Amino acid sequence: MLSPSQIEHFRKKGWVVVDLFTPEQIADVRNCLESNALMIEEVGGQKVMTFYNNVLGLDTPRDLHLFHEPIMKMFRNAGLAEKLRAVAGPDLLLWYTNVFCKMPGQGVIKWHQAVEYYTSSDIDYENKTLVYDEVDEQLNLTVWVAIDPADKENGCMRFANGSQHRTFDIIPSATPASEGVFAGISAHKTVWQRNKQYSIGYDFDENDWEVEDVPVKSGQAIVFTERTMHCSYPNNSNRRRLGIIGRYVRPSTLVYPGRLKGAWIDENGHNVKRHFNVLVSGEDRYGRNVIRDHHDLDETELAFQHAYNRLRLGQVRVPENETQFEIEALQQQVLAGDNTERQPNPVLHPRKFIQWQAWQQLRGTEPAAAMKRYCELVDALAARKPGEVVTEEFRKVRRDGADRSAIEDWLTAYIAEALDMPQNEIERDVPVNRYGLSSSDTLRLMGDLGEWLNEDLDPTLAYDYPTIASLAGYLESANAAQAA
Ligand SMILES: O=C(O)CCC(=O)C(=O)O
User: Fold this and answer.
1) What separation in Å is there between the alpha carbon of 162 and the centre of ligand 1?
2) Residue 245 CA to ligand 1 centre (angstroms)
3) 149-202 pLDDT, tens per residue?
4) Which of 273, 253, 255 is nearest to 263 (CA)?
5) What is the pTM of this model?
6) Cβ(204)–Cβ(126) below 8 Å
7) pLDDT tens, position by position, 195-225
8) Which domains does the chain have, with CATH numbers?
9) Does the pLDDT at position 437 exceed 90?
10) E strand map for 66-180
11) Assuming Cys at both sites, which of 10, 30, 411, 424 could form a disulfide with 468, CB separation 3.0 to 4.6 Å?
């Protein structure tokens, strides 16, 4: 139960800290997150914890409870539901969870509210996430659970006391995307901002409010309302700050209304076809939402998802041989269905072409059959004895000793294809960026050229040798020097 003083605190300030989870319960969720995260290092060395949602089939830190039991258990915990009832009434649906991992060096999350959506740049007013009932009081309660302790140094939350009584105006396109609300945690920036140039801001000035820093211990949670303005400090420490949130609405609120019209992509670009809500307290008297206790993956799909995670997380290594192509093709067949991609040019993109062919051969294969074969292959790889030779070179497509004119031809054909231009309009002595090749196109070109030549090429060569002729000339002489 919440005590009368906690209820009073919540009503007055819009948030309250509660002691919720035991060290064992926290350890279960911490282990689950750590053992299902891929740590990646961004350009500039920033470490980021990334996740895959096996029910939605997406790289995202969102809604991991749909697949992972420890997270589901945390947010449907009876003690938590009892506390929420004290401020939110008897009937509650868990509709959303999200992981907020602030690694050392990550920045601020700026002031925002969570009334119905909190996209930072690509608000689509027609495509709302939540539609509240006209009669019922609006509610989208957040429970922010500290997995790691959070303090002012490693990025704890801050709240504007009493702000929950107002809805603040959104100023669209106010801020460059690189400085938007969620830019401080890059995993979230990419979800909310995607490729947009601008991000929203709120018509809110913290100097007009009593702002409170809210440090929390591991196992404590902060419960706050949909209108309470909140933000968090940057992580200036050398400690990780891992938090996970759950969000709760009344069953009268329509979650993802677009699905009723078959529109499955939410305002953040997520495909929510398999999303479901969980009734954590009371009853649903409306029947408006998809409500389930558990995901609907059958045994075959569950086995596939676990096998898929073993590869994604590097627990099982795939040798670079035909098996790799088969595994990749099976994965595409399961996740995307029959191949509808355009055939890549086999000379320009040999690896992509082999992948494309392998996928093409699976046309018409039922997902269940593809999943079973995938699991067999992964199980066989996992059963290999240590020391067994695993790396055979995948089919070499490149002719050895490509000379200058062969490389020039390859580059000309590649650029013509990338820019959709006739080859005879590409001049070999003109810097390629004059044709409008972006720096990411150039990076991709160098990767594909390296693959064709079967060697690792330094991408900066494209800047040192900016024309087709100069790059081909350099590569030919480097090749000759190596052979001598
Ligand atoms: O964890 C954080 O730093 C921010 C969390 C947040 O903004 C939210 O829960 O809406």
Assistant:
1) 18
2) 8
3) 999 999 999 999 999 999 888 777 667 777 778 888 877 776 665 566 667 778
4) 273
5) 0.84
6) no
7) 666 677 788 999 999 999 999 999 999 999 9
8) 4-281 (2.60.120.620), 299-379 (1.20.80.10), 404-483 (1.10.1200.10)
9) no
10) 92-102, 109-112, 130-131, 141-146, 157-160, 170-176
11) 411
Residue of the nearest CA to atom 5 in ligand 1? Answer: 100
Question: Looking at this protein, which amino acid is placed at residue 171?
Answer: I
Task: Name the residue of 103, 106, 144 whose CB sits within 8 Å of the most ligand 1 atoms, as the mutation to test its pocket.
Answer: 144
- Please enumerate in sequence order all residues whose Cβ is within 8 A of that of 308, keeping only pairs 6 or more positions apart, or say none: 54, 331, 374
Name residue, tokens 């087709």: 468
Does 368 have pLDDT greater than 80? yes
Amino acid at 369: A
Give me the amino acid identity at 19: D
**Of 8-17, 41-50, 297-306, 398-407, minimum mean pLDDT range:** 398-407
Atom of ligand 1 minimally distant from the CA of 118: 10
Ligand 1 atom at minimum distance from 155 CA: 3
CA 292 to chain centre: 24
Helices (H), 275-419: 299-312, 322-336, 350-360, 367-382, 404-419
Which atom, in ligand 1's list, is nearest to the CA of 185? 3
pLDDT, tens digit, 9 for 90 and up, residues 101-122: 999 999 999 999 987 654 433 4
pLDDT in tens, 390-400: 444 443 444 45
